[in-house]
Amino acid sequence: MAVATGLLLGGVVACGADDAASITDRLWVSDVPSNPREEISAFAISNLRGRKLGALYQGSLYQGTQRGFRLELEGRRAVFEMLQDGSRHPVTVHTCKPTTGFHFCIELEGDPAGGRRYQSRKRWSLGRSKGGRAESSVVPMIPSLLEEFELAAVEVAPPAP
Q1: Is residue 157 one of the residues assigned to a domain?
Q2: What does pTM read for this prediction?
Q3: What does each of the 161 residues of the chain score in pLDDT, given as a tens digit?
Q4: Quick check: is 153 in a domain?
Q5: Distance CA 2, CA 76 (A)
Q6: How far apart are CA 107 and CA 3, in angstroms?
Q7: How many domains in the chain?
């Protein structure tokens, strides 16, 4: 398991016989929302100027909280250092079998968002960042990705009376 974790954090996740994905530069979600008000958890990590910065998101398309973090590697484990308060959360990453409709699956043991299972699709790659994104773009990244990857209903119905 330590070897798989090291490979995952080092850049490759083995999620199937021929499938592999990096934990960075990819949108990971706890679920696909069925409407813009349904709450989910999500995260993304980008390589920005040689540092791995990311954002954890909890909420819906309309309302949510985001927490920016820096990813550090400590041996075979990762540490999420929260940018707001400097708290550090050791995280162990495990691969899992993706459910129908997904290509990649991971579980974050020690996840500051509550130890969730996250999944991703091949087309949800953010592309390899080569330092082009500004650090300030990490935190507002998740809601725009949810829209870009069409994870929310296009037509918004008014609330029922």
Answers
A1: no
A2: 0.74
A3: 333 444 445 443 434 433 445 788 889 999 888 888 899 999 998 887 778 889 999 998 888 888 999 998 776 678 999 999 999 999 988 899 999 999 999 998 888 877 689 999 998 887 655 555 544 455 566 777 777 766 654 444 444 55
A4: no
A5: 6
A6: 15
A7: 1
